[in-house]
Amino acid sequence: MTGVSVQGFGRRHLDAVGERGRLCAGIDPHAELLEEWGLPVSVDGLTRFADICVEALGPVAAVVKPQVAFFEVFGSAGFAVLERVIRGCQEAGALVLADAKRGDIGSTMAAYATAWLEDTSPLCSDAVTVSPYLGFGSLDPAVSAARASDRGVFVLARTSNPEGAALQTATVDSLCSEPASVSDRPLRSEPASVTKGVAQSIVDAAAAENADGTATVGLVVGATRAHGLDLSALNGPILSPGLGAQGATADDLPSVFAGADLAWVLPASSRGVLGAGPDVVALRAACEKQRDEIEAAFG
């Protein structure tokens, strides 16, 4: 574990996983899963699904991650159900990571930050996923709001989908990273003296934000492939989706994240756990089994 004193969201995160183990349980009520559970693809079905997940997962998972899109398809009624999930899981002791993947600039990004990270909002969660691909600096309103309230943001870095590789592994000239000048001139055509991957530049920017010890900025790094990133200086949580249905196993994790501080790695499973529903007892048991497999793999 890093020698930096951990406070803020980082302290909350480490306390949660220390008490409940390293697993982020996804709540993904897509239409096929509602039907598998014998529920209608409707607000009533969504509500029943959500209530079962809160009852089963809220008391045992360190972090619960509702996928916002699957609630959004039901409009305002879906968001009302999402609010119930957020409050119910928090009341049961879990941290809630809203998987919204928001990304924009200026006042729009500030509005997203208010929606997901400020106490006044009914959608206020403990953390939210965000996209840095309008420039890492565009995330400043969300990072500032999270830091002020001991909450967190998880920034997409090296995602598990194959389509992301072309952008995320592209190289950038680290000598051309001055924010004030990059947008005002063309890309340099001569060979760069120092290069790094786009995803690594995101990792480095997150590490710089976490130098204060708050671990406000986490990363999203998929567990399904070698990511090629140096995560050793991050000093913040690493959400790692891909367990179960996407093919990764708990035993894969120590090698995938070799060189990272494993205390910060937060593996995520959605379909791999939710497939045990709709029975509350079976669903909770599946969550605990996945958590125990992760803990055993990490030693």
UniProtKB/TrEMBL annotation:
The coding gene here is: pyrF
Instruction: Kindly list the biological process annotations in GO that this record carries.
Output: 'de novo' pyrimidine nucleobase biosynthetic process; 'de novo' UMP biosynthetic process
Q: Does the keyword Lyase apply?
A: yes
Which Pfam family, an example, fits this chain? OMPdecase
Q: Which GO terms describe its molecular function?
A: orotidine-5'-phosphate decarboxylase activity
| Residues covered by the Orotidine 5'-phosphate decarboxylase domain | 22-286
Glycoprotein in keyword set:
no
Where does this protein come from, organism-wise?
Gordonia rhizosphera NBRC 16068
Q: Give the protein name, as stated in the record.
A: Orotidine 5'-phosphate decarboxylase
Its EC number(s): 4.1.1.23
- Record's catalysed reaction(s): orotidine 5'-phosphate + H(+) = UMP + CO2
Per UniProt, the keywords (alphabetical) are: Decarboxylase, Lyase, Pyrimidine biosynthesis
The UniProt entry annotates the active site at K101
